[in-house]
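Severity: low
Component: inverse-folding endpoint
Summary: output formatting inconsistent between runs
Steps to reproduce: submit the following structure tokens with default settings.
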């Protein structure tokens, strides 16, 4: 028994020694993983690995617009379009208003720019002083001109009578008139204290426009731009 036991022990020691030598031989032939092996780091949240010490380019992630963003963008664009439309409409309205105001101003200016000339004289009396009522000499100017030719602006529809009233008022010239219902017009009775029949039974005031004597009363004759009106005292109206 002792013999077999010794043989077993020797065999065990031999096998153990062989294994140790094989292990050492294997260790000497294995490559050095500390120098040549690349180390990896596990990226848990992405599920991929990346090399440690290696720089990677950042990736730009393009996100598709959501329905909410699309709606908001559409609403903003619509509001911008509305604002542009309102601004354009407002500008057009203002331009139209300005044009209308300019046209109205021009129209008013044109109407105000219409002018006529008017004069009042009684020079015919100078040749008929013997017929003139006593005391009336004071109201007859030495040259017979009560009002020299005067320019005055007129409005649409003004008559010869309207212009006479204006110039007499502006120049403090006495004027008296009466309305004739039968003719539907105003009758000039006296200017500068010179009345009808003051220089003869047929004497009185007449008026002419552009050298012609109208067949209607002065309050019925409508004037136009450039007319020349003359009120004259005649010693022989008939």
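Observed output (run 2 of 3):
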């Amino acid at each position: 028994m002792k013999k077999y036991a010794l043989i077993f022990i020797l065999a065990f020691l031999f096998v153990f020694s062989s294994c140790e030598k094989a292990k050492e031989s294997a260790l000497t032939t294995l490559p050095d993983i500390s120098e040549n092996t690349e180390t990896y780091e596990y990226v848990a949240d992405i599920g991929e690995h990346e090399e440690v010490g290696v720089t990677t380019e950042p990736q730009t992630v393009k996100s598709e617009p959501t329905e909410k963003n699309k709606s908001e963008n559409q609403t903003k664009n619509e509001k911008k379009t509305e604002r542009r439309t309102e601004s354009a409409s407002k500008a057009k309205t203002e331009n139209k208003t300005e044009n209308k105001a300019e046209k109205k101003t021009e129209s008013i200016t044109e109407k105000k720019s219409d002018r006529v000339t008017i004069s009042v004289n009684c020079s015919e009396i100078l040749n008929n002083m013997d017929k003139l009522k006593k005391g009336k000499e004071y109201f007859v100017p030495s040259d017979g001109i009560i009002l020299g030719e005067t320019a005055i602006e007129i409005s649409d529809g003004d008559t010869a009578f309207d212009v006479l009233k204006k110039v007499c008022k502006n120049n403090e010239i006495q004027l008296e008139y009466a309305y004739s219902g039968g003719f539907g017009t105003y009758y000039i009775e006296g200017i500068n204290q010179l009345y009808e029949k003051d220089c003869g039974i047929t004497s009185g005031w007449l008026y002419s426009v552009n050298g012609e004597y109208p067949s209607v009363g002065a309050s019925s004759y409508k004037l136009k731009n450039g007319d020349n009106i003359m009120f004259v005292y005649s010693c022989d109206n008939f």
